[in-house]
Design goal:
This protein is of the alpha+beta class. The chain contains eight helices and five strands, in the order H-H-H-E-E-E-E-H-H-E-H-H-H.
């Protein structure tokens, strides 16, 4: 008798459980849709302060250059070259890791660069820290652990393969002092800077924020990159 009652109860509850399961399945898509936030919304939540002193800054404060932080057997520089270049060939016996040649569509200028690995040619394509490490240091990274600074220095969100001469020109400039010559890329450029600063709790200077707002004026719905 007891078994029949539980059987009846299970049949009655089955539609309810099915509906509940369907709702659970739908939750991730709902979260994904609300995850699309604009740069301006995030920008308003970032602290604005003056730059801290550069005292104590060095590249070593951000860990070993181009560490293999994701443990995929390939250093960060080659990870970014693999991501940003096309028509790639690899150095033999490197398990498709070390990029020997490829084509870069430089985001900063829009020009096409033929990359060839070599002592005299590798520097034509460099990996830029979109938020420079010096800038990061002076806007809060000096307070981070070495582990967090190493993550920042190797975070793909903060890295782009770009034309070497423009990387040198940019140096440690922020949006108030340097912008990509390709104007159509500027919205995406500052969006990436804001995303990095928000992710790592770095602050903005007043001139930097004002410059970002001016750049975003014609693209107010620019989404935050991930």
């Amino acid at each position: 008798m007891s078994r029949h009652r539980f059987g009846w109860l299970g049949s009655a509850l089955l539609p309810i459980f099915s509906l509940f399961a369907l709702q659970i399945m739908l939750v991730p898509s709902a979260i994904a849709s609300t995850d699309q936030v604009t740069v301006i919304n995030v920008l308003e939540k970032i602290l604005v302060k003056g730059r801290a002193p550069k005292t104590g800054y060095s590249r070593a404060q951000f860990g070993q250059a181009w560490s293999d932080v994701n443990h995929n057997g390939c250093d960060t520089r080659n990870d970014i070259l693999n991501r940003d270049l096309t028509s790639i060939t690899y150095k033999p016996n490197t398990r498709s890791c070390v990029v020997a040649s490829g084509i870069l569509r430089d985001p900063y200028s829009g020009t096409e660069i033929n990359f060839l690995k070599g002592n005299r040619t590798s520097s034509e394509v460099q990996i830029d820290h979109v938020v420079s490490l010096s800038n990061a240091w002076q806007t809060g990274a000096f307070k981070m652990t070495i582990q967090t600074r190493t993550e920042l220095a190797n975070d793909p969100l903060n890295l782009l393969a770009v034309k070497g001469s423009l990387n040198g020109q940019k140096s440690d400039g922020d949006a108030a002092t340097w912008l990509p010559p390709l104007k159509s890329y500027r919205c995406a450029f500052v969006a990436r800077q804001v995303a990095v600063k928000a992710k790592y709790g770095l602050w903005l200077t007043r001139p930097e924020k004002d410059a970002i707002l001016r750049i975003l004026a014609p693209c107010p719905n620019q989404l935050l990159p991930h």
